[in-house]
Amino acid sequence: MRAQVNLSRHTVLSDKSTQIEYLSGTDKDNTVDWEFFVSDGMNSGKWTTIGVPSCWELQGFGHYNYGQDDEDKRHQEHALYKHQFAVPKNWKNKDVKIVFEGVMTDAEVKINGKLAGEIHQGAFYEFKYTITDLLTYGANNLLEVKVNKVSSNETINFAERKADFWVFGGIYRPVYLQVSPKENINRVAIDAKADGEIIADVFMESKKGDQIKLALFDLKGNKLQDIQTKLIRKEKTMWRFSAKANDIKSWNPELPTLYSLQIELFDKNNELLHQVKQRIGFRTVEVLEGDGVYVNGVRIKFKGVNRHSFYPESGRTCSKELSIEHVKMMKDMNMNAVRMSHYPPDVHFLEVCDSLGLFVIDELCTWHSPHLDTKVGRKLVKELVVRDVNHPSILIWANGNETGWNKELDDDYAKWDIQNREVIHPWNIFRKTNTMHYPSFHIFAYDTYAKDKIYFPTEFLHGLYDGGHGAGLEDYWKMMWNIPIAAGGFLWDFADEAVVRTDKNGMLDTDGNHAADGIVGPYGEKEASYFTIKEVWSPIYIEDRYIRESFTGKFRVENRYHFTNLDQCKMIAQWVKFDGPNASVQCSILEESMVKLPHLEVGEKGSFTVELPRNWKNADVLNLKAVDQHGMEIFTWTYPIQTPKQFNESKINYTGSGALVTETKDEEIKVKAKGIEFLFSEKTGLLLEVKKGDQLIPFSNGPIILGHKDKIEKLTLTSLKDRVEISVVFEKTDKSPNWASHKEYSSDLIKWTVYPNGLLDLKVEIKGKKIVKDYKGITFSFPEQEVAGMKWFGDGPYRVWRNRMKGTKLQVWENDYNNTITGESGFVYPEFKGFFSSLYWAKVKGKNSNGFTVYCKSKHTFLRMLTPENPSGDPKGRLSPKFPDGDISFVKNIPGIGTKFQECDSMGPHGNSENYLGNDDEPIVIELTFEF
């Protein structure tokens, strides 16, 4: 929404407090029109209007640039802004500052034709000018801002404009007036420890100030206590106090308790001069060398993600609503941390991290080398820390990114940070920490000269397209959790940065493979890894469990919270019965009960028991849904009770009368049953054609045994009263003896059975082999253009890879066909094409036919549905696993997927290309029933 009049938001506690008057809008959805002129590109060379705050490219001005564009494609337009605002007469005796929360990139500010101060350089930092003496009171005033998209400081361009993200121009964050009494508190810096101890620096602009009083409030405005203070340092413009709050609750991301600290400045006559309130959380952060990162005395593991401030239709201009949406999704994935890559975020994002509970790494914007020059770098470090110092969510400062660190700035953070938080160099071994990026799995052997450094990669498992994120996370997290000096890590990254191109008919553009790295799509569309992360990072860790006849209801569990006892959570057990593909109601709950979770302190292991109802063996699936102390779902685990064969016994009905007609002609076997005509090859036994009445069902050319080279020994056609059987036996070409039993390998077998009611059974036996790298299974043809959708009972709704199996649920799902290329095009999720695990039955819908239903009677079988289109930006093929021949397959093993930087084999055991498929003496059996 673009407001046509000035949006004003007043924050007035009393006439002795600070008033905020917005000159711009407040966010991407609430803007105010200012006069505007851009020098080059779209709609340039003329005065018009633009909504502020905004990135001008997204409003149809100037040029788009990605940070890695070649020099000859980099645009350097500048823009002029004008805005008139009224100043009341009663402000004449006030202190008035103008605050810019963010301008890209160099900003020259004038009030009534006079410079407000020096040109500000740096796109991601809040800056302000005192303009008291430049204003005309009781009249309109003119604000003029010249914004250069490219800085005159080349080191800022290397830090911010030549980075791996979109480059925008404009006044993209809000602008407001800050109006305070002449005698005022300019700012405060607070260190509030978990035990209630407070150290506060109060910076003031006052000649009359004589004493400071503190009081603690809850966030509803209720006064909790006055706090006695002790002055421990007094300088001309800064006083330092110590104090102690009683009976407080500490802040942590699992229970993020916040307070409001009121600071009042009085003169010597005890007259109030100025009053401010600062939201705080009581918590203690320690980075103990050779040990770990501690919060409130607890060693923590970061379950983190990198996040840019971004929205497709507004670029870097965001909103508090968007911040809430993003943080809620992170919390829903059971994350506890976020890294501000690669620049400070909007203030409201940090406020949401404080209130909803996330650990934060806050970062100065640099990008590789050369680094920021020291003079401008020191200004930006001050602006970063002064703005953000009081957020309890911030645990660590990052002095830039990936070799962009100016080491001369490392100690500057402590000058402005009363809490003296640790400074890191992301992608480097520095001081107490090792944050090297994109480690291969073997790095966790951790026997280097830096093995005593606290290790947490600030980027790992790069999420380009469908790779990374969830793929490999189970293996990595097992190591991160169990290595004492490992402190977790941060996935790259949260969302695909696809920008709306106003110069290209509104297309979504990720600049090829540069910005398609998200767990979610550009508008928050959830990809499969979202749910894998949710399960792997669940703070309730349940050991893998298989339900068999001897099941007692017992599950082993570990409390992987940092601050919460397990008995604060709830768990619901549901015993669920599912029906076949043609049922109108797919499931019913046989029994539901609460599970008593054990009293387990942080890190403890124990067990819980699910009460077994008398009819539990009649259920198909056990659901265990865990809910945290705030009522949010942690995860829902599903456990099959019936095997596919047991489940489908009651779903497949072989009864039914009718004649079976068999005809052999021109090397083809034709079998008719109840209006269905099957055509098989007499030479190979492959299904060639299926017709139902006059309708051709395009399911054919199978079962081709994948990787199979043996010749056919014989084909047998057997016509019986109640069925027709076609059996194909292959030669035993491999005569090498089994090392243990010295027996020959068995031969492969294909067996079709046609029943009078039109059902078609298939049994395939494939020679077993202990270790394989190629696919083991069978495949068929069904042209992609004929597929309309699929309904199935199995794991879903997302596809899986070998190294990304977690995050699914066993139930009935239904997806329409789509051709989404993850992170590149379509953005419709779940993706329709790929591998789906734990198949029980599937109903494939045809566009020009009724399709077919297949019942799977073999355990641990994957359904392959078509072949995903490979992304265009994957030159090394790490994100494009090879699929079997054909269109629809039933396989016993599937590939892993890699990342932009890694082959899946280097990402842990689950990504290894070798598969152990067991027994040389026994065949792999796939049994299916088809219904047309």
From TrEMBL:
Occurrences of domain Glycoside hydrolase family 2 immunoglobulin-like beta-sandwich (ranges): 194-283
A Gene Ontology BP annotation from the UniProt entry: lactose catabolic process
All copies of domain Glycosyl hydrolases family 2 sugar binding, residue ranges: 48-181
UniProt entry tagged with the keyword DNA repair: no
GO MF, one example: beta-galactosidase activity
Subunit details: Monomer.
Name this protein carries in UniProt: beta-galactosidase
